[in-house]
Write a sequence for this structure.
């Protein structure tokens, strides 16, 4: 069969194939012109990145410097935690306690026996409840917080007696709202202990100043102030101050070994 005969019999098929080839060549030229530059650029970027990955970006000196800075930051973090986190004295913890509830009631009774007579001799009107709730706490985690609040109350009342305040009334302990939340308390937990002070303005201000000096506070730790609202009292030559102090707890940071294990 010669070409003329093949052409006569298959010219429709050959025409379709030829037209498809022309369309393909045109499309290839268009795509190469519009996307070819982008493909080449991406390929160059990939080759450059692979080259960088094969080369160490940091030497041993950089690693040692990073380690030194990390150790310095850990020291600063420890100092900040020591200054902020409240450290309860042994009497106000559950260490060695067989029953948390029994420990709580004993500590509360002992503190009342200790503070009320001293306050009476100093002519200080003191809230007998010491900020404790009408219904005693039963959950261990709440007992721990109320014991810590009692520790703070004794520290504050001792300062008030030293400064010869007239009144320490309306003491209230407010636990962190996150303690019973499903989301938890987060990185920082705050138990707020509120006081209503009465006395000379100078004495109240001096109490607040001394509360910030570790050497002037029982336990040797400065107290964390929350809010202060001071105003003249109805009684002459007296001032009133609504003051809140905070018992701060910081969440424990995960151990480095635990972090490495999680990353694996």
């Amino acid at each position: 069969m010669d070409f003329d005969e093949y052409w006569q019999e298959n010219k429709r098929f050959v025409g379709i194939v030829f037209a498809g080839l022309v369309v393909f060549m045109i499309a290839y030229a268009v795509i190469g012109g519009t996307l070819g530059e982008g493909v080449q650029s991406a390929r160059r970027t990939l080759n450059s990145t692979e080259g960088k990955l094969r080369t160490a970006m940091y030497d041993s000196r950089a690693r040692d410097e990073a380690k030194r800075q990390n150790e310095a930051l850990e020291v600063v973090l420890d100092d900040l935690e020591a200054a902020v986190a409240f450290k309860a004295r042994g009497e106000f913890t559950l260490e060695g306690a067989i029953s948390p509830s029994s420990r709580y009631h004993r500590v509360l009774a002992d503190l009342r026996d200790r503070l009320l007579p001293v306050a009476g001799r100093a002519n200080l009107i003191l809230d007998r409840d010491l900020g404790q709730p009408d219904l005693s706490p039963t959950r261990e985690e709440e007992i721990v917080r109320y014991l810590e609040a009692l520790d703070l109350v004794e520290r504050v009342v001792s300062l008030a007696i030293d400064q010869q305040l007239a009144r320490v009334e309306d003491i209230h302990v407010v636990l962190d709202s996150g303690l019973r939340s499903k989301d938890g308390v987060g990185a920082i937990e705050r138990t707020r202990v509120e006081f209503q002070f009465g006395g000379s303005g100078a004495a109240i201000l001096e109490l607040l100043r001394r509360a910030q000096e570790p050497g002037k506070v029982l336990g040797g730790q400065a107290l964390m102030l929350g809010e202060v609202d001071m105003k003249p009292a109805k009684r002459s030559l007296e001032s009133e101050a609504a003051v809140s102090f905070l018992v701060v707890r910081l969440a424990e940071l995960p151990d480095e070994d635990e972090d490495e294990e999680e990353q694996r």
